[in-house]
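Quarterly update from the structural biology core.
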Amino acid sequence: MYEHLVSFKFKEEVTKEKQQELALQLLKFQGEIPGVMKVTAGVNATEEVENIHGYTLGLHVTFKDKESLDGYQTHPLHEEFVSAIEGLIDNVIVIDYEVAW
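Predicted structure, tokenized:
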């Protein structure tokens, strides 16, 4: 299994409501993209405000294998999401790793 973690830092003018809308769009990946086992996404709710650093939306995707993770990058739903956030993002952090048992 592979885990895909993403933290999004939006431009100031992007509302919380817009971020929630984008989180719902991310949830559509499950059941639609081959090899996606689980998807969670949501607006940051931490009380550790000194550690947010402007990152307000998180995504966590569990993939069956490396091939599924690779295929996800060019899947139309993923590309649609990337287009939807174009111009709204200040920065993104991505971490992919193989689950160590």
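The longest helix spans residues 16-27.
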